[in-house]
Every structure is written in C-alpha cells, then in structure tokens.
Specification:
The protein has 76 residues and is an all-alpha fold. It has 4 helices and no strands.
Length: 76
C-alpha cells in the first residue's frame, strides 16, 4: 500500500498537492462533458476556474510543505 512508504504528514500532503495539480486532464474531461451536454456552461466555468487556481496553488504549497526538510534546495 501507498501509506506504508510515506514517512510523515509533509510527504503525504506534498503528494496530495502534486496529484491535485494535474489540471490538464480535468480540462479535457470538462470539455468532453460540455460537448456531450452532461454539464452546463456555468458548471464548466466554475470547474475550469477551480482547476486553474488549484494548479497555480500547487507550487507555492509544495515549497511551503518542503521548507526545512531534506528535499528543500535552499537548506543545502
């Protein structure tokens, strides 16, 4: 299982932030859903904004989570 090799909460949160940053796949699925009429244009707009914001948040969040760890480049 994935849980066994994680060392601490910081590494778990970092992996979660990285997984959340894969917004390109979400945008493709949203486009297909909009074309098929599964979602409304309003929902499409909200979800696209959410995908962009969470993708932009990933880098600062990862830098914050890894600050002071062995993965931090500035601590070397």
């Amino acid at each position: 299982m994935l849980v066994y090799w994680l060392q601490n909460w910081r590494e778990s949160a970092t992996i979660s932030a990285l997984i959340n940053a894969c917004g390109l796949m979400e945008l493709i699925i949203l486009n297909i859903g909009l074309e098929q009429g599964v979602i409304t244009p309003t929902l499409f707009t909200i979800m696209v904004i959410m995908a962009v914001i969470t993708t932009l948040m990933a880098s600062p969040l990862i830098a914050f989570l890894l600050h002071g760890t062995s993965y931090d480049k500035s601590s070397a």
